[in-house]
Amino acid sequence: KQYRIAVIPGDGIGKEVMPEGLRVLEAAAKKHDVSVHFDHFDFSSYDYYEKHGQMMPDDWKEKIGKHDAIYFGAVGWPAKIPDHVSLWGSLIKFRREFDQYVNLRPVRLMPGVPSPLAGRKPGDIDFWVVRENTEGEYSSVGGRMFPDTDREFVTQQTVMTRTGVDRILKFAFELAQSRPKKHLTSATKSNGISITMPYWDERVEAMAKKFPGVKWDKYHIDILTANFVLHPDWFDVVVGSNLFGDILSDLGPACTGTIGIAPSGNINPEGDFPSVFEPVHGSAPDIAGQGIANPIGMIWSGAMMFEHLGEKEAGKSIVDAIERTLAERTLRTKDLGGNADTTACGKAVADMVD
Amino acid sequence: KQYRIAVIPGDGIGKEVMPEGLRVLEAAAKKHDVSVHFDHFDFSSYDYYEKHGQMMPDDWKEKIGKHDAIYFGAVGWPAKIPDHVSLWGSLIKFRREFDQYVNLRPVRLMPGVPSPLAGRKPGDIDFWVVRENTEGEYSSVGGRMFPDTDREFVTQQTVMTRTGVDRILKFAFELAQSRPKKHLTSATKSNGISITMPYWDERVEAMAKKFPGVKWDKYHIDILTANFVLHPDWFDVVVGSNLFGDILSDLGPACTGTIGIAPSGNINPEGDFPSVFEPVHGSAPDIAGQGIANPIGMIWSGAMMFEHLGEKEAGKSIVDAIERTLAERTLRTKDLGGNADTTACGKAVADMVD
Ligand SMILES: CC(C)[C@H](C(=O)O)[C@@H](O)C(=O)O
Ligand SMILES: CC(C)[C@H](C(=O)O)[C@@H](O)C(=O)O
């Protein structure tokens, strides 16, 4: 079968790292006999917005909804276009309308990337953050009353549905079950957020009964963030609500040295819609156009995409190539103390793929 | 004037660290000619709950509402009494009914306390987290619909009032203005939480206009937690909503080595009600009764209490004594690699006060 991938570079350094991501995917596809076809799209970018007054064409769903996956660079250019237009007009639209209810990110300390945590070595930190990606704290239900008076107030609801909570927990428990440690940690705050979070805990307990082989525990989000720093070796699979997962999946990569190389998947596990794979970093206007951006996040996201498509070997060959590349100082980009530019780093990974 | 302090040891190690807190307060009071009277209360504890079926007497407000401050150990014994009974029946009641709308915690790397962050030394990390303590995400507004069916869902509102937001921001800007760096950082998530958080940003901007001498910036909570780990030296005063402040004020102390020594104040700045000073650690059932708990969090909270009462010199003398004590391995408790027990550590600090 031939995979059809929608390619959306987006803004800023998204455009610079995308060619390297594609280069490595092509190298891995060749070695592992995977047939891929890439379709390129210019929407979901500031340039497109400037021309058309919207982030995406009206028929964006027809254009990319039948692809096997979407390979996405970065979107957003806060100085030119407000976040709620650019992000809610693309990224969050994908998540909602393609029902990508899993946001998946590895937290893994790689060779050549110094951890800000004292004494931690590659191998010490290796877990996954599973984030609910469609509901929870990111609802749009709420409003403002008594505007511009002393009585002014705003409210916004957190919404958790049984469907929404159970399916993300099921995904997380299944992932935990597939791993050697079989350990799941749930992020909660039921001692302070007294309605939604106890419900989350309740559903975790119910789901845990279906996975007797998985050991599980829960921490309140405050002490959990502390434990990411103090005991990152405690974790295997960490599951959280939209907001908690968002926090943990930036904090986790920071603990492994840099969010500059972290990948992510926005996944619809049933495959009813395409999933989006994108680096965690944004468009980084401050370094865009200089050719120095680190392409590893983009490349690693490609590896996750191949794994999601079922091409485990091709995916793994990319992750291995990333590790070997990062281990060589001269092949790393400037942000990691090396002197390679974006292209040189991307080529190095492509060459290492086997 | 004689200060009247309500003393509530609470549960678990709260009872063990309280005598050391009092010992040091008495030593500092003597040296600095401060007159203090302590009234002891046994409520807000599991023992009290077991006898009376509630955490506090009906007239708790009359009993402690006229004191100049409340010196609080720790409450909660999750195996025996659910959090929502113990915490909401005492700690959170104080915050709400005594309108302690500021939760204040220092984040400071102390000598003798190894930071989990590589290469950070005492002096490198020194900032305050200012947390809104009465509203926000900790509302009790919400509920459940369609229970026990597939359509089941729960909602909970975040509530931000103009009064509530403005007064915490004012406190934070004033604190920033009083410090050498005059720098304030606001925690937001307005790119994802689309109603309450943009409102928070709006009020920050309005308040900033009244403090032209203060430099300010804002970060989304996800990248802010990452920056606590990667760049803790960037911060001076960090202000956040109830939930964001809760997270940051556990993560911050974790970055400085341990939440075991962190102090906190739950403050009603106007002095209409007493403020509560308590260590950040909980009742720690796992080590309770062994006499090994670290009393520094309790002692440091006492220093904050003196400063709040206007006894700056007495407060500072305690913080200095803590630093000198922590610098000596033999005077530290086991959790910090020393061999002192709770009492020996407390006595050491009391002796150092000058
Ligand atoms: C015990 C809990 C309700 C409390 C909170 O979240 O406010 C605690 O974490 C704190 O920070 O004082
Ligand atoms: C850009 C923003 C809305 C987004 C989020 O909070 O979901 C981002 O932080 C992410 O994690 O993908």
UniProtKB/TrEMBL annotation, chains A, B:
<dbReference type="InterPro" id="IPR011829">
    <property type="entry name" value="TTC_DH"/>
</dbReference>
<dbReference type="Pfam" id="PF00180">
    <property type="entry name" value="Iso_dh"/>
</dbReference>
<keyword id="KW-0520">NAD</keyword>
<protein>
    <recommendedName>
        <fullName>D-malate dehydrogenase [decarboxylating]</fullName>
        <ecNumber>1.1.1.83</ecNumber>
        <ecNumber>1.1.1.93</ecNumber>
        <ecNumber>4.1.1.73</ecNumber>
    </recommendedName>
</protein>
<comment type="pathway">
    <text>Carbohydrate acid metabolism; tartrate degradation; 2-hydroxy-3-oxosuccinate from L-tartrate: step 1/1.</text>
</comment>
<keyword id="KW-0479">Metal-binding</keyword>
<dbReference type="GO" id="GO:0009027">
    <property type="term" value="F:tartrate dehydrogenase activity"/>
</dbReference>
<comment type="similarity">
    <text>Belongs to the isocitrate and isopropylmalate dehydrogenases family.</text>
</comment>
<feature type="domain" description="Isopropylmalate dehydrogenase-like">
    <location>
        <begin position="4"/>
        <end position="349"/>
    </location>
</feature>
<keyword id="KW-0464">Manganese</keyword>
<keyword id="KW-0560">Oxidoreductase</keyword>
<comment type="function">
    <text>Has multiple catalytic activities. Apart from catalyzing the oxidation of (+)-tartrate to oxaloglycolate, also converts meso-tartrate to D-glycerate and catalyzes the oxidative decarboxylation of D-malate to pyruvate.</text>
</comment>
<comment type="pathway">
    <text>Carbohydrate acid metabolism; tartrate degradation; 2-hydroxy-3-oxosuccinate from meso-tartrate: step 1/1.</text>
</comment>
<dbReference type="InterPro" id="IPR050501">
    <property type="entry name" value="ICDH/IPMDH"/>
</dbReference>
<dbReference type="InterPro" id="IPR024084">
    <property type="entry name" value="IsoPropMal-DH-like_dom"/>
</dbReference>
<dbReference type="InterPro" id="IPR019818">
    <property type="entry name" value="IsoCit/isopropylmalate_DH_CS"/>
</dbReference>
